[in-house]
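writing this on my phone so excuse typos. first protein, seq and then structure
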Amino acid sequence: MTVKSTESHLSITNDPTRLRQVMINLLSNAIKFTDTGGITVEVSELPLERVRVTVQDTGIGIAPEDQTHIFREFWQVNQTTTRKQGGTGLGLAIVYALVKLMQGDIAVESELGQGTTFRIDLPRWVVSASVHE
């Protein structure tokens, strides 16, 4: 696995527990579906105090018709009982929900047999909403 950063020092003040869970789920999927090749994680700065985290693999890829469903709970690309990879179908649904909670956006690009790229754009700082009486 390769980790790259386009910045010499880039800090993110967001929810570390949520961000850790997002990264664990994305990296677990990348490892699970990449038999040969590699996985790259890249962090870069975006305008307006935002950052992008990219997780790219050279794995089996996701068909275009399946990409619209991958963030649904309990949904897996291979729904058969003979599938090679295990799992509950919750990982990407959790990733999607956590990214939204951190006021971010997530996108996927993939091609069968060529791998998958997940891009997460997050604010560098999250300001908690306070309740005014």
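second protein below, same order as before
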Amino acid sequence: MAEGELLIPPLRPGAHLAVIAPAGPPKPGRLEPVEGWLRERGYAATLLPSCFGPPSLDFLAAPDHVRAADVHEAFAHPRYDAVLALRGGSGCIRLLDGLDLDWLAASRKLLIGYSDLTVLHALRTRAGIPSLHAPMPASDWGLPGAQADTDALFERLARGWRVGDVVGRAEPHALSHGGKARGRLIGGNLAMFCALLGTPYLPDVDGALLFVEDISEEPYRVDRMLSQLRLSGVLDRIAGLLVGSFSGAESPDAVLADHLPRLRCPVLAGWPAGHGQPNRPLPLGVMAELDVAAGTLTLG
């Protein structure tokens, strides 16, 4: 691809976003400001029925058929220009075998979200369509310390992403090693990526750059998941590993320090994305070059 070629088009002022809740329900008070926040940024928004429940199994925003219908509606209806997830939590994986994958692949609308949305990002990657690991309204927007991440998201949505863009920089980190690697950027939440192993929904890992992050996973669970990736052969097949934040539990740094030096591929740790702050927007499903010495990720 040529330098400067558009990878993810900008969302122009007045663009209409479909807001869906394919995973967990919003906490009290987190739903009502969403339309206003988007209007302030120059966008129109429609909150689809899954955002309003009723919750199912105590941890799902709405029954499976409602959440699946909203995914289809958001990507299929021509009035919507992009699809924004309300929050993560749990539940997206329940939808996969009930979604019309050909229908979804026919739409190149940008999917925005992270955490449990990792499994929907995997569908976009498998279809050759970029998506965006980025802050979500009911999880991040308006919270103390999150303003810079939200501003970064909307600033980049207005500009889009092009070949040659440097999408971020990691500070020097003890767990980083190796040189450069180039591949398609895949992944997201470590637990959800591991949940796709053995299913037909896992993105192609051969020669990929794998991004991982997580929250509230104790070190023994991170160890188990990294072992699963190793035993399944994933860690031998990727071209490089990009490591985001691990927050909300005891630090897994000792576990990471045990696993990551064994990898033959370059590892760039301390990437500013994940459930903690900072959580800068990160395009997925696009080709990129990881440069450990520079601490950068360059698209294309």
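The chain has a mean pLDDT of 98. thats all i got for now
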